[in-house]
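TL;DR need structure tokens for one chain.
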Amino acid sequence: MEAAFLSELRLKEFRNFREAAFQFSPGLNILVGPNGTGKTNLLEAIGYLSLARSFRYHADRELTTWGCTGFELTGTVRRGNGKVQVRIVYHPGRKELTINGTTQRILDLLGLFPTVTFGPDDVHLVKGPPALRRRFLDRELCQTDRSYAQYLISYHRVLKQRNAILKQVAEGKVKRGDVDPWNVQLVGLAQTIVERRKIFLERLNALACKLYFRLAEKQTISVVYRPSLPDGKDCLEQITERLEREVAAGATLWGPHRDDFDFYIDGRPARHAASQGEQRSLVLVLKLAEVVYFGEILGIRPCLLLDDVFSELDKRRQEVLLQLINEGGQSFITTTEVAFLPASLLNKGNILTFPLGK
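>> reply
TL;DR here they are.
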């Protein structure tokens, strides 16, 4: 399988990097140093090249160096015998993308340099709020399906307009019937988004089940999508039934922006029944399943961004992750001490020490 890897990265006014340049190995890259020295910020910059968005879900303005108004990232991505230069410039209110010197849409970036991230905070995918899981779905699907990203953009545009109309109905400025055209548009977009999310989770679930068996042989897991409207019912009919509540709330109370998915272990909700170790295993196999899925869909092995995970995993989980790293492709691992990493990794990695220049 072909691998996409980042060979060079230049940062300007991004997080704690006023100006910095890096060269990376096509295999393993180990970022070593105390907390607060920029290791995770560098991972965030690398991940930004996948979607022009932070995998930590921070707004672009929060990524700018203190006292500055924007930032710039320039990366060289190599795929097979070719290379692509990606440059992203952010200024308040606008973002510019150039690929090999030509101005492009942000959509044209998707799938060019796919990344899969895994860090200690990802355990909140199991026990955290639904918004985290929706963001996970949207981030991963946008990397593998540009048309999904287009549907998502259109959905949120229509959703914003519908919410504005609902508020105007409540204020008596327009009639209830003025909502109807927006209902039709929203339903069409919502059904497409929900269907693609379900297909994605079904495949991820099948892959994760096989991987989890290697960690906990006596347990079974499942990932189940929970739409905010039940299957098999006419959506337009349900919207009509709920209109009074939506007018009172001034907001759309159903749709992909309200959906969720749950993890189960042996049929029990993992959010409440799983231990911390079991929840960590669930997230680990979900991320490993992503790597396989990306390869199936894109024909490219994604770059792995692993933020201080080895100190959080027991020996058995470390071995599963090690096996994936050893299969090839590019990986970035952060750690505060090399002692936290398995000895087998240290001889293979390109080590970058933080703070820079140390």
